[in-house]
Write a structure and sequence with these properties.
288 residues; two-stranded antiparallel ribbon; Arginase, Chain A; eight-stranded parallel sheet
């Protein structure tokens, strides 16, 4: 059984035995291809959450009424990517075996691979919903297959064709776009409600891993990320979209990643990340 963390995200202080959702942090950014700093994202989300209210006026629900346990950040090896992923997979395995939903806070996007590995073992027919600015479908990045630029390609090797649904993508090299057309389903540039609802109908009853790269937001509202891409969605568009998915899909695991808090000294990016996590937790708790 996991032990309580000293500093929790907002109101996530339920006992492990009672919790339906378990947070765990991945302070890892060793494969970041541009600006580092995402390793501090999970810590910042937790510590800065105290500046927010637990009540969501958007959903008229309060995180205080949800049973969420915060297990804290793992201590990960920055020099050994494989070992870091193995440790994260083990934590997700433990949470899943106890019948709870693992909610990972990154960290760079490669950490998603560990969580998907764990979820795929329990749910062989696992599907993935992916919000991001980047396709992350490279075969390798500068010769490295374990990179945040390759994470969805590695996930595809686990789940196969027709099981990955991408939204908001606006960046990738030509090979990624060409390969993706034959293997994943992509709605580029936007997070339109009608597109998401159509996918939710297709995924009805199926186990879904939901991964949110926060750089899907435009850098004008979310500059605190390692690889900013102009042309993204607003905070409110993302909030509506994640609430829609978490409140309607059969989500069996999820993550929020790629906040690099030091790259936005104003703290606005961290506040946005905290609110997205809060809205997801409330919607997930209501569905469960």
């Amino acid at each position: 059984m996991l032990k309580a963390n000293i500093e929790n995200f907002l109101a996530c202080d339920a006992a492990y035995e009672e919790a339906g959702i378990v947070l765990y942090g991945a302070p890892f950014d060793s494969t970041t291809s541009y600006r580092p700093g995402a390793r501090f994202g999970s810590r910042a989300v937790r510590s800065e959450s105290y500046g927010l209210e637990s009540y969501s006026p958007y959903q008229d629900r309060d995180l205080l009424d949800c049973s969420v346990f915060d297990s804290g950040d793992l201590e990960l090896s920055f020099g050994n990517t494989g070992a870091a992923l193995a440790d994260l997979e083990q934590r997700a395995d433990e949470i899943l075996q106890d019948g709870k939903l693992p909610f990972l806070i990154g960290g760079e996007h490669l950490v998603t691979l560990a969580a998907v590995r764990a979820a795929k073992k329990k749910y062989p027919d696992l599907c993935i919903m992916h919000f991001d600015a980047h396709a992350d479908l490279r075969e390798d990045y500068l010769g490295t297959e374990l990179s945040h630029a390759c994470v969805i390609r590695r996930c595809h090797e686990l789940v196969g064709d027709g099981r990955i649904f991408q939204f908001g993508i606006r960046s990738g090299d030509r090979e990624e776009w060409n390969w993706g057309r034959g293997h994943v389903k992509t709605v580029p540039f936007t997070l339109k409600e009608e597109d998401i609802r159509e996918t939710l109908k297709e995924l009805e009853g199926k186990p879904v891993y939901f991964t949110v790269d926060l750089d899907v937001m435009d850098p004008s509202v979310f500059p605190g990320t390692g690889t900013p891409e102009p042309g993204g969605v607003s905070f409110d568009e993302l909030r509506r979209a994640v609430t829609l998915v978490c409140g309607n899909a059969r989500v069996v695991g999820c993550d929020v990643n790629e906040l690099a808090p030091m790259l936005d000294a104003s703290g606005a990016s961290t506040a946005a990340a905290c609110k997205i996590v809060r809205e997801m937790l409330i919607a997930l708790s209501e569905r469960r």
